[in-house]
Amino acid sequence: MNIFKKIFILAVFLVCAFSTNTTFAQEAYDEYQATWKGKVLEVLSVESVEIEGTETNEKLQSIKVEILNGPRAKEVILIKDDYLKLRKGDKLFFDYFLTLEGREFFQVKDFYRMHTLIFFIIFFVFVVIIFGGFQGARSLMALAGSFFALFYVLMPGLLAGWSPVLSSILVAGIILFVAIFFTHGFNRESAVSYFGTMFAVALTGVLAYLAVDLNNLSGFATEESVYLNFNTQGSLDFKGLLLGAIIIGVLGVLDDIAVTQAAVVTELFNANPNLTRREVYKRAIRIGREHVSALVNTLVLAYTGSALPVLLYFYASPSTLLMSVNSEVFATEIIRAIVGSVGLILTVPVVTFFATIYLKGYKGKGHSHVHSHGH
């Protein structure tokens, strides 16, 4: 009897193993063919199904979709969708797969958003030019230059094996040069702002390196990092990428505070040429403190807003607050906010110091000569 029992168990095991391997092989050979654009013609049905192994329900739609591009354009297909809540008339992107047996199936990828994105981009450009005039147009050119440096210098360089930290500092220098000089002109104020900001960027980089290293942050806090690691066969330095991301992330606010401080010093000198450099430095620092207090709050709230889903996840989880804060996802955002804020604070005294040395006697743009008469 024991022998028959063992044979039965072995047979069941082999059947299960064979079924599992066959399923795995089928999934492994589901070959991606293309991504096409489509339009929902009709939502045929909507049902609530339970996700296997959980107590969570999801909506499963059966939709009729017209293919809008590719070799099968105008063909109508059926798609099972449990990812997006689609309605009649919605446009979407979907992936086309073929199984090992030659069976085809389709999977919803995302909404088609280009028409609304283009509208908001045009609206943004319009508002900047109407409010900022020629200087606003120059700022848009600087923004385009920044995107060019990111997409055609930094990203290809990182994928080619460049050092993430060094390449990020290099690209930061390019972005700041374009942003400051093309927006505010080639003048002494811009030069002081640029070199003072680059000095602050270097200090921020050192602080970021120490913070990431001491906190043992790996750079794998998000799913995107894991996927990217697989796609690049583990060739990227993700700790270095995290450092580079921190440096690039603070450039906007550093540029803001640097240009403002240089302009403040110029105006203080122009308002009263008899002021000493020490007096101007003290007054400019006082203004800088007010600006920094607002910008630090803005920076922290910006990081909090970007990480809001993560915060909600940890808030709803059974983990203690201490465990949540200790997690790499949470710790990474804390380090980003702290390092960015410290870099912002450091920029004020550095740029103000350079400005008080080099901008005495300089007439800034928009300066008008006011003649006073002593009595």
Helices and strands, with pairings:
Layout: H1 2-28, E1 31-50, E2 57-67, E3 76-81, E4 91-98, E5 104-111, H2 114-159, H3 164-184, H4 188-214, H5 223-231, H6 238-249, H7 251-271, H8 277-306, H9 308-316, H10 321-326, H11 328-358
Antiparallel strand pairs: 1-2, 1-4, 2-3, 4-5
Helix pairs in contact: 2-3, 3-4, 3-6, 4-6, 4-7, 4-11, 7-8, 7-11, 8-11
Write a structural description.
With 375 residues, the protein is of the alpha+beta class. The chain has two domains: 36-45 and 58-113, OB fold (Dihydrolipoamide Acetyltransferase, E2P), CATH 2.40.50; 134-358, no CATH class. It is 64% helix and 14% strand. It contains eleven helices and five strands, in the order αβββββαααααααααα. The chain has helices at residues 2-28, 114-159, 164-184, 188-214, 223-231, 238-249, 251-271, 277-306, 308-316, 321-326, 328-358; strands spanning 31-50, 57-67, 76-81, 91-98, 104-111. It has a five-stranded antiparallel β-sheet with strand order 3-2-1-4-5, with no helix packed on it. Helix 4 (188-214) runs antiparallel to helix 6 (238-249), helix 7 packs parallel to helix 11 and helix 8 packs antiparallel against helix 11. The longest helix is centred in the middle third of the chain and has 46 residues, at 114-159. It is elongated and about 85 Å long. Residues 1-29 and 367-375 have low confidence and may be disordered.
